[in-house]
Write a structure and sequence with these properties.
- There is one protein chain.
- By secondary structure, the protein is α+β, with helices and mostly antiparallel strands.
- The protein folds into two domains: 96 residues, Alpha-Beta Plaits (2-Layer Sandwich); 201 residues, Up-down Bundle (Glycerol uptake facilitator protein).
- The protein is built from 14 helices and four strands.
- It has a four-stranded antiparallel β-sheet with strand order 2-3-1-4.
- Helix 6 crosses helix 12, helix 8 runs antiparallel to helix 9 and helix 8 crosses helix 13.
- The longest helix is centred in the middle third of the chain and has 32 residues.
- It holds the Pfam family DUF389.
- Keywords: Membrane, Transmembrane, Transmembrane helix.
- InterPro entries: DUF389.
- It comes from Saccharopolyspora taberi.
Length: 313
């Protein structure tokens, strides 16, 4: 179940209440008239079956309410109620299969913001990935994959393309276009410092071993990227976030980005090109798989005809 909280102008309260009462997937309806101070209005709350969330938001006019009120949708947590069970049974479909498009757009929009925290995590991840390759340490590379925040903008890019949210596409593209060069620049400075202090030189570069997958590109690179991107988008759209960890440690975006700079500065052109190609293949594969998953789940029709969220500010 999801919990819906609406701050509604008094003049629209009865319309919203009637819409909620008419939805079989909504229950536990409560109201506090005059309960909202900023913005002023009535406070309406209800629990909603996940599979009915899009219908409910569309029925109450969530986008219009967001202009002079507010609509908040969160996880209801553990719910012990026969009414809730009946609401879930009445709503069409299965809750675990349902996609709440408004929530997906909002969540991916938040995850693709370019800020200091995003740049810091991406830079640290690239440094960890580069160290992992140079020291032939798969464990360190896995750590870099988990730390890297790049899946957020990649998922946002796929969602924005399918749902035609061009502001979301632009925001995700900027995060990637700025984030990776900054992180790779930080890695370049660290590499130059390592050369100057004698901690690293051309002899430090691996010639094979357990980490060669970072700079060796093949069909398996694209296949893994596609599978990881599909799993990641399924996780986001079905609220099974635990699967995202598996996505993070399946793709080689961050290690490839970090190591391409190291190999370039130490003049191993083959490994530098291989790592850069690996990076591009993984980025493209993840976005492509995300788009395909959303298309299969019916996103174009939902995005155009039913999702009425405001443009991201």
């Amino acid at each position: 179940m999801l919990h819906l909280r609406v701050i509604c102008p008094a003049g629209r309260t009865e319309t919203v209440l009637a819409a909620l009462r008419a939805q079989p997937g909504a229950t536990h309806l409560t109201i506090a008239r005059g309960g909202a101070l900023d913005p002023p209005g009535d406070l309406i709350e209800a629990d909603v079956a996940r599979e009915a969330a899009d219908d409910v938001l569309d029925a109450i006019g969530a986008a219009e309410l967001g202009e002079d009120g507010a609509v908040v949708l969160t996880d209801a947590g553990t719910t012990i109620s026969e009414r809730a069970e009946r609401a879930e049974e009445s709503a069409p479909g299965e809750g675990s299969d349902a996609v709440v498009w408004d929530q997906l757009i909002a969540n991916t929009g938040e995850e693709c913001r370019l800020n200091g925290t995003f740049l810091a995590f991406l830079s640290i991840a690239c440094l960890l990935g580069a160290v992992g390759v140079v020291t032939d340490s798969p464990v360190t590379i896995v750590g870099a994959m988990v730390v890297g925040p790049e899946f957020g903008p990649l998922a946002a890019l796929a969602v924005g393309l399918v749902c035609r949210r061009w502001l979301l596409v632009r925001r995700a593209a900027v995060a990637l276009a700025v984030g990776f060069p900054v992180a790779m620049g930080v890695t370049a400075l660290a590499t130059l410092a390592g050369k100057w202090t004698g901690l690293i030189d051309a002899s430090s570069l691996p010639t094979g071993g357990q980490v060669s997958f970072v700079y060796t590109v093949g069909w398996s690179s694209l296949i893994v990227a596609l599978l990881a991107g599909a799993a990641g988008m399924l996780s986001l759209t079905s609220a099974k976030s635990a699967a995202l960890v598996g996505v993070f440690i399946s793709v080689t975006t961050v290690p490839a980005a970090g190591y391409s700079v190291v190999a370039l500065l130490l003049r191993d052109w083959g490994q530098a090109v291989g790592s850069a190609t690996q990076l591009v293949v993984n980025l493209v594969g993840i976005v492509l798989a995300g788009v395909l998953v959303l298309l299969v789940r019916g996103a174009p029709e939902r995005a155009e005809d039913r999702v009425r969220t405001r443009e991201l500010s």
